[in-house]
Each structure stands twice: as C-alpha cells, then as structure tokens.
Amino acid sequence: MLRHHPTALAAVILTSAFVGLAASSAPLVRAAVESESLKGQVRTMSPLAAGLEIQSGGPIGLDGARRRGAVALAAQLSFVGSPVLTTMFPAQIAGADGSGVQVVAMARTGAAAHVGHVTHGAGHGVWISRATAKVTRLRPGGTLRLTGSLFPGAPSAPVMRLRVAGVYDDLDGDLQNPYWANFLQDIRSPNSDAPPLPAFVLMPERTLVRLARSLAPYVQNRFEFPVAPRHVSSVGARRLQRRFATIRRELAGPLGRPLGCASRAFGHRVHCVVTSSLGAALLVAAHDVAAVAPTISLLSGCGIGIALATVFAAGIFLTRRRADEAQLLFARGESTVSFGARSGVEAVAPTVAGSAAGFGLALLALRSFAPAGSVDGGTVSAALGRAGAGAVVALLVIAAGAALAYPRRSDHAGSRARWLRGLPWEVVPLAAAAGLLADVLAGGGLAHDSNGANHPRLVVFLLPVIAVAAVAGLVARAARPLLRRRATGAPPAVFLAVRRLGAAGALLVTVVVGVAVAFGAFAYASVLSASLHRSAAEKAFVSNGSDVQGFVDPSERITDPLPFPAALVQVDSLDVSLSSGERVDLLAGDPAALARTIRWGAGWGDDPRTQLPRLEDAHGPGLAAIATRGTPAADAIVDQGVRIPVTVVGRSPFPGTTAGRSALVVSASALRRVARRVGILDPGPGAEGLLWARGDPRWIEPALLRSNLGADYLTTVDHVLEDASVLAAERSYGYVRAIAAAAAGLALLALLLYLQARQRVQLIASALTRRMGLSPLGDSSALALEAALVTFAATAVAAAVAVVTARLLVHHVDPLPQYAPGTTLIVPWWYLALAIAAATAAAATCGAIAATVAARSNVQEALRVA
Length: 866
Hints:
About 55% of the residues lie in helices and about 15% in strands. By secondary structure, the chain is of the alpha+beta class. Strand 2 (about 85-95) and strand 3 form a beta hairpin.
C-alpha cells in the first residue's frame, strides 16, 4: 500500500527518523559531554598525574626489594609506562648556617634532569634548592651536613656530610612542571600564611640508602605508573579507573607484598595508599554532565513531543491519501479500530527504517563531533532501547491518526461522535496551558542540578506550545466562515485561494496548528534568549559596579592618582532603616566619580548616571537620594538610631544593591556633613567599602593591587556572565530554537503533504479553471498564495502568543534571582519579522511545487477516480 503512495511513505520514514533521533539523543549527548569534559581535564594532566600512584614504605634495608617489586608490577600492567620510583625521608640541616632547617632527602628517578639548574659543578653529590643554598650559604663543591634528629643539638644525633653537586631552582616557582605533578602538596602549602614546606635534597639511591641507615631506618616510597593522557577517552578512563580499583584491592594480598604493602614494620601494619588524579577528572566530568542533564532532558523531551506530533499528522495524511480505499472499506463495514490497527501494521517497515535511520544519524553525529572513544556498549544499548521505544510509540500514534481520519458511521453513535467533534477541542489545550501557567507562576519554572545551577524546566517550553496550538485552532475555526464570504470581486487567483481556504476542513486546521506550534516554539525561545542576554548583562554590571570590583576598607580614600576612572562606595546594610522599620541598603559615593565609572549599556532603561547630579541638589538638613525599584516612598531614614530627612530625587537600578531589598543612594560628602551634624559615625559600624574601576581588567587589576587601596576579592562582569545558570539557560534556549527550526521544516513537509492530499481536487479545479481562462501561472499563483496565507497567519498568531506568554513567564525563569535588577523582557521584532517572511516565502514555494506536480498529472484519471 505504501509503495503506491510514495509521499506518505516518505512522511512516515522522515517523521520516524526524527522520533528515533530525539529519543536516542539523551544518553549519547550525555556521553559526549562527559567525554569532552574529561578530555579538557586530562589535556592539562601529565602522564604521572593521570596514572597510578602507590604510596608505601618500610625499613631502609628492604627499599631495594620494594623498588624491584614496583618494576615487576609495571611489567604486568600493559597500560602503563616505565615507573618513576621515589624514596624519601625527613631530615634537617646541622651546622652553624641553617641549623634546624627541615629538608626532605629524596632519591627519585631522573629528578636532577627535571629541575631548573641554577649552578652546578663537576663530580658527584647531592642537589639542593636555591632556598636551601641561600640559608646554608653553600655552593657546588661545598659540604651539606644533615641529621635525622627532630631536636637540633641532641647529643645522640648523628651528622652526615654530603658533597653539593649543584643548586636547582625552587620548585614552587615551577608548579606547571608535569614531572612534579603528584608532589604539589609537598612543594607549596595551600595556606599562604603557613611557613614554607621543607625543600628536597636530591641524591642518588645509593647515597640515600647510606644516609638513611644512619638517620632514618624507616623511609617512604612513592611509585608512579604513568599513562598517556592524550589517548584516554571517557570509556577508557572509566576502564582505567576500574583497573586501578582492582589493583587497590589486590595490593592488600600477595600482589602488594613485594611493594611493602600488607607487611609489618616496627610493630605496625603497612597499608599502601593508591591514588590517581584521573578519578578527580572523572568527578569533574560527572559534575559537568549534571550541569547539562536538565538541558539534555529538555532537548530530548521537546524533540520527542514535536516528532510525535508530526507522526500523528503523518497518520492522518496516510488515511487521506487513500480516501477512496477508506470509503470502500467503510462501506464494507470495517471498524475504525480495525482500520487503525491495519494502518499501524502497514507502517511497521517504514517506521522501523526511519527510527533506525534516526538512531544511526545520532550515533554518526556523536562519532563525528565528540572525542573518539566517547561511546561504549552500555551507552549504545541505552540509546538503541530508547529509539526502539520511540518506534513503538510512533506506530501507536500513526494508528491513532489513521483511525481519527477514517470515515465515521451515520447512525446514532455517529451522530453523537459528530456532536463531540463539533465541540471546540481548543478548550482542552487552553485548560492545560492555564494549569501549566499556574505551576510556573507558583515557582515551578526552574530546576536545580547537583551543582546548584538553575535550569528551565520542560514545562516552561510546553506552556507556549500548548497555548499556541489552542489559539491557532481558534483562529482557524473563526477564519473559515469569514473566508467563505470574501474575495468575490478579487482576481481569479486570489478568489480561488480564498475560497479554497474557506472550504477546507479539519486537515487545514491540523496544518495551521502544526506550523504555528513550530514557529511559536522558535519565537518563544528567541524572546527568552534575547531577554536573558539583556538581563544577564544588566545583572553583571549592577552586581559588579563597573568592569572591575574589589572590596576595600570603607574609610579608604584614593590618594595616588589612578590611570583609569575609579570610584569608592560605602554600603551600609546593617544600620539603616526606613521610618516604617524596613531595613534598607544605604550607598554613599562621589556622584561625579560614579558617573565616570559606572557602566551602563546602550538602550537600557533608567540609566542611573543621568540622575547622579541630582544628589548634590538637596539643601537643608536632609539628604537627596536615588531609590531603587520597589523601594517604598520615604521622607526620612533612621541611621544608627538618628532620624535623617531624605528627599527621593529619582528611581533607578543601581550597582551594589541586593536583589529584593530596598536601597537608597546618596552623596558621600553630603552624608559626611549630616553625620557630623547629628553625631553619628561615618562610615557606620556595619558598613563595607567597594571599589569600582572602568577599563580593561587585564591592566586594571595589577594597578589596583599596587595602589594604596588594599583592594582584594577582585571580580569582573565575566563572573556573572559566565555563571553556570546563565550558560545552562543559554544552552536550553539555543537547543529549543534548533529543535523548533527542525520542526518548522517538518511543518513545511506537512504543508506539502496537505497540498498533495488535495492533488485530485487541484487537478479537477485546474481543468475547470483553464476552461474558464485561468492560465497555469495563475493556477500556480493561487496555490502559492493559499500556502503563503496559511503560513503567514499561523506564524503571526504564533509570534503574538509567544510574546504574550514570554511576558508572563520571563520574570519566573530568572536564572540569577539573587542578583539585582529583575529580568527585562526584550522582543527581537526584526528577527521575528524576518523569520515570518522566510517561512511565508518557503510556504509559497511549496505551493508552487505542488501546483507544478498537479499540472503534470493525469487529469482524466483524477476525474475518473473522483
């Protein structure tokens, strides 16, 4: 049957492919994100950091045996390289210079070749750091005295003399050296106020053994087994991590005895510690997957929803393309359920083929764009299972669409069915949209991942889609009676197009709703994306004041001139309230300096810089103030228990304020005058100081650190713009727009199917209109105009509903509610107008194509079948 209807066959295959692609995408995209994140983490790792490290120890007499055991273990592990072996123990310097200074005696494979050489002489000996050389005043050829006593000068402390062969550069200045990646915690303390950690004294293994026999009978071992991080994929990393876990368990048994594990030394049992930075990289990758998991689910859910809608339309067209067969089967008494089930069985082959093609496309895209080795068997199985489930659901939806389009009986049950069909179906989606709107307004618009980032929920995107479907259906229902009575005096092409639209039935409504839903999702995501960009930029500059913000002492003053605009602001959040008792933030600064320093975007409303000169206009005992949005009207404040008159001279969002909290901005000089007069402290006891600077942060931050201001905790606007919640929202809106664009392509396919379904009528109409004098060009123009009118009306209605819905929801999907000000609705009118024009032009092209196909068909056959 499908072979005789190639258009319907193509529709089933394409829509099923979209279902397979959307259904199987979630596990594949998660695997790609994890692999890309892991690749970024591992890219910065050295082979030693990514590999396995075993920490052991024991008597110095067995050190050689432990080292040989590590070499033997590396030979058993095919996935690691040659091991790096380290033996070390703590010691301290003896003698007049540097006595009591702690050092670490170390014998490490190739250590002297992986440090920066400051000075060195001929012959053998030990290598000391620059800091050790400075303390001991030693140079190459000198003698280093070491002792193992913890108490300098103890009578029993032996002193060993070692020849200095060279001086190496301090390792804390070379922290990026991959050779020392696993020793960073031994090189630099995480606390900047802590004293320096002991430096390493590098020496050959034989020297260390001789030294340890006198100073430290017990030594520590570190055996590092490197792996090549560039060749580690997410699948390979998890496999390596499992192998590392297996080795960790086996070291407690016979495997660990040659390395000193599971042995006893000095009455204590030795337990080996097995570590690898690869585990930390996998943990970071898992957090990155958690950050995008809601977006991936959103993407998959939206895609599946739109795909199933197109599958349902394909089921309807499947019946319409075989209307004569359906009428014959109806006359022979076949039931609706039987016809729908048989249509589903007939569509099994193209549905399975399309779903398989969609799954293959998703897998191909992942293999093309994701790092190699991103997918393992488990991921492929999960994706295949979801694609198979999508295929089953698609078959059921096709059967439902075919059954819905099947002719109905004219008996009492059929009359009741017609009565039910006469009810406005738009009531159901309108009620659903109202319920979803109530859920979002109640705070259900955002989801939170394990990292604390906010993500729009699927309900945020379902709401406008459902609302657009309902409104588009109502518009189509109301427009058809009007079109039947219009265009009587119009040119033949316009008259024919309008009358066709007026005579169209439920199939036209389906097409209009499909086009409107696709474009509505696109317009809605575009409006939210534009609003997000504006709101995030406003929040960034309001929270950061200018390009750079830092914390300073509130009583600080700029004494050294700075080569860029800068302003100091006092923020008092603890001592000030309104007369009603409501707490407010009081910000005080120099209006002229603030006007030069504050950044504000072009076109943003309520520019605070234009109102700053008014702060110097107050006369008498009070203060002139700029109030933020939402601050109650006030004529006075209470600061440190003293009432001070206030005159509000403007309202505007202002940097340094807190979201949801009232704030007043005053002149710092005016506040000092009032404070002296009423006898309060300036700055107040709870005040803190902010420094705002305007310019390139790359040269502002070093200049501020060199200035007298003592600024710390420097931040830039990028700290807000690159917030995980903002990035997650941007990804969500971008994905929805991409899905909506793909759905728009399917909607055009549905439009072409609609026109093809009317091919027989078009053939008859073409024959009659040519006898009436209408040329083929006029016939094509009529069909193109019909398609263009359908698309223009659907996209215009969808854009209007999307804008209204976005206006209702934009304040409830704020990814950064903790930052002031609130969200701002931005509608990209020109962008939407161009999209409507492009969709209308594409629809007109589809109409012209359908007319051309109809003109080349057999008119006599069409008349005979009709």
